[in-house]
């Protein structure tokens, strides 16, 4: 039964992602906002809601390992699986934005801050507040930097003469709800399957739940890439990782301080740092191609192989 639920929830997830992408494009055009900013804020925050729900719930249930593992796993999967898939699937990747100059810092800083915070073995409520402030700074940066022009030809399938706020808001909410519901049931069914095999909470969090909660980013980013919205796809990944490390961990630690023994999970923490630096390397050298995508997917396979062997 769990397998049936998983398949159905995936269908709901895909339908919701397509709806959200189209309405986000409409909003971007209406306000003359770049696709990257829409992807890094509106879509990124929306697709990070499953991670937030999962981690806050785990924190309240005194499952700090699962809460933190969910964030680490989601960030690793967002870059390796999601970005790797985008590079492999997209035909022409010519982003308008200079991601290295404008966004590489925002990809690295939260990871370094997170690693510093867990050195004392706990992410406290004070740490959580600092993480939320960091996300606020990122949003402020995006707002002040969002003066790029959007070409009308970039937003096909949209007739702004028939733009309707009630319709756009309703469909956006519907798409977001479908994404969250689909991700929720994907997580629950996958977790139930994993528990049958006696898998630890950390493994469930870093693989099963993080995969389920990363499904929105995966589906949304691939949908955007197929439609030629590469800036939106990459923006979703960078924004989602930023939201995961700041908002998700922030609220989870405020709900209940997260105690974590970093020495037990050095490989996973090192993988998070390495994959983030690899993202910076790709943006610095503008390696937006299938070779880079394959390299990221290889990194994912190595990470999963080590995780499976540790079972």
Summarize the structure.
The protein is mainly alpha-helical and 311 residues long. The chain has 11 helices and 2 strands.
How do the helices and strands line up, and which of them pair or pack?
Blueprint: H1 2-30, H2 35-47, H3 49-60, H4 64-89, H5 99-117, E1 122-123, H6 125-145, H7 165-195, H8 201-226, H9 230-255, E2 258-259, H10 266-284, H11 290-309
Antiparallel strand pairs: 1-2
Helix pairs in contact: 1-2, 1-7, 1-8, 2-9, 3-4, 3-8, 3-9, 4-8, 4-9, 4-10, 4-11, 5-6, 5-9, 5-10, 6-9, 7-8, 8-9, 10-11
Strand order of the largest sheet: 1-2
The averaged pLDDT comes out at 85
CATH level-3 fold name: A middle domain of Talin 1
Low-confidence stretches: 148-158
Q: Give a count of the beta strands, DSSP E runs of length 2 or more.
A: 2
Summarize the biggest pleated sheet: 2 strands, antiparallel
Question: How far apart, in Å, are the first and last alpha carbons?
Answer: 25 Å
**Helix and strand element order:** HHHHHEHHHHEHH
Structural class: mainly alpha
What is the beta-strand fraction? Answer: under 5%
How many helices in DSSP terms? 11
CATH class reads Mainly Alpha
Shape: globular
Computed over alpha carbons, the radius of gyration is: 18 Å
- Helix residue percentage: over 70%
CATH superfamily: NCX, central ion-binding region
When the domains are counted, the total is: 1
Tell me which CATH architecture applies here: Up-down Bundle
């Amino acid at each position: 039964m769990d397998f049936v639920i998983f398949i159905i929830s995936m269908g709901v997830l895909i339908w919701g992602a397509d709806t959200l992408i189209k309405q986000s494009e409409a909003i971007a055009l209406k306000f003359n906002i770049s696709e990257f900013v829409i992807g890094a804020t509106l879509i990124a925050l929306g697709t990070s809601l499953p991670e937030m729900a999962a981690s806050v719930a785990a924190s309240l249930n005194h499952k700090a390992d699962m809460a933190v593992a969910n964030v680490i796993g989601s960030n690793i999967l967002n870059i390796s699986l999601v970005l790797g898939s985008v590079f492999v699937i997209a035909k022409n990747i010519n982003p308008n934005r200079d991601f290295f100059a404008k966004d590489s810092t925002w990809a690295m800083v939260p990871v370094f801050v997170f690693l510093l915070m867990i050195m004392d073995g706990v992410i406290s409520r004070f740490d959580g507040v600092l993480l939320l402030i960091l996300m606020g700074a990122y949003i402020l940066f995006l707002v002040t930097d969002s003066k790029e022009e959007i070409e009308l030809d970039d937003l096909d399938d949209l007739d702004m003469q028939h733009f309707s706020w009630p319709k756009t808001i309703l469909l956006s909410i519907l798409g977001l709800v479908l994404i969250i519901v689909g991700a929720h049931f994907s997580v629950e069914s996958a977790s139930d399957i994993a528990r049958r095999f006696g898998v630890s909470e950390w493994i469930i969090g870093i693989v099963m739940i993080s995969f389920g909660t990363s499904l929105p980013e995966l589906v949304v980013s691939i949908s955007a890439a197929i439609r030629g919205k590469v800036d939106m796809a990459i923006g979703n990944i960078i924004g989602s990782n930023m939201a995961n490390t700041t908002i998700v961990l922030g609220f989870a630690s405020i709900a209940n301080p997260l105690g974590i023994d970093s020495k037990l999970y050095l490989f996973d923490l090192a993988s998070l740092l390495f994959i983030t630096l690899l993202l910076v390397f790709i943006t610095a050298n503008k390696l937006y191609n299938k070779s880079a995508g394959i390299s990221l997917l290889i990194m994912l396979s190595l990470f999963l192989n080590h995780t499976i062997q540790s079972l």
